[in-house]
Amino acid sequence: MPQISDRMVPVIRNNLKRMSASAVNEPIARERLLQDFVGTIMQGTAVRTVLATDAPFPGFNGSMMSTESLDTEGVVMYIHGGGYCCGDLAYAKGYGRILAAETGSRVFCPAYRLAPEYPSPAALQDVFYSYTYLTKIFDPRKMVLIGESAGGGLLYCLCLALKEAGLPLPAGLIAISPWTDLTQSGDSYRENRSVDPSMTKELLDKFVSFYTKTPKDPKCSPLFGDLSGLPESLLFVGGDEVMRDDAVRMHKALQDAGCKSTLTIAPGMWHGYVLYGLKERSADADVIREFIRSIVK
């Protein structure tokens, strides 16, 4: 991934702060346009040629990304973020294209249905359908789920649903700034309120109101589910995030359930920082790439 120099970090922080301050009062349609624009920009940053095959699924669209010469046998399913209310296929393909270029693997991006038009459990139903579709083609032992923000929480909801259905789980999970507790009960929502440039509790409250009437349900907040038996996880979160404790508490809950989990807290970083390709955090991208390649090889 092309790297953004350290001198750009303050610029990014200031722009994020300005955007997040007004986002809570913006209509969902405008927020969606802004997020989708970011995805369009990301699509142009992949360092290898990536092919995209789009396809319609029942009620939503998806795309399979791959390089011209595949280096691996397995597949990655990337579940995008956006508070369950934002993010179309163009946005999902942005980071999906980067993952395909950097890992040499196929990357499937489902553009699941969004709230408020389609509240819970629509998003979970769509990623469940996507995963079971992929298992007809690929060995789950060579599959990795990766997601950021709502997508990072949704991949755990998906694993809980797969367990309940008695279906095979993927071999690895990567959660970037995962939203695992829609009740927002972590201390970081208060502790980082004044320092988080990218997210506000008020905006998250709006997203929750659109998405579910039962935010503590493990189908929405996997932190409160039975996490035993889940595959190895890598979790990444910014130290300045209001959602920091969603990752911290999820990491502890996974370990308490007997699961292997590694947590990286990046000091001074904001929500979803991994997707920005920051030079000073390039080691995190390296860890993600090598983790994926070790499974999908």
Task: List key phrases describing it.
9 helices, about 40% helix, eight-stranded mixed β-sheet, alpha/beta, about 300 residues, globular, single chain
Mean pLDDT across all residues, rounded?
91
Radius of gyration: 17 Å
Strand order of the largest sheet: 1-2-4-3-5-6-7-8
Beta-strand content estimate = 15-25%
- Secondary-structure-based class equals alpha/beta
Label the overall shape: globular
The main β sheet shows up as:
8 strands, mixed
Task: Give the % helix.
Answer: 40-55%
Total strand count, please?
A: 8
Q: Are there runs of 5+ residues with pLDDT below 50, and where?
A: none
Count of helical regions: 9
Our measurement of the CA-to-CA distance between the termini, rounded to an integer number of angstroms, reads 20 Å
Order of helices and strands: HHEEEHEHEHEHHEHEH
Q: Could you describe the 3D structure shown?
A:
With 297 residues, this protein is an alpha/beta fold. It has 9 helices and 8 strands. Helix 5 links the parallel strand 5 and strand 6. The longest helix is centred in the N-terminal third of the chain and has 16 residues.
In short:
By secondary structure, this protein is α/β, with parallel strands linked by helices.
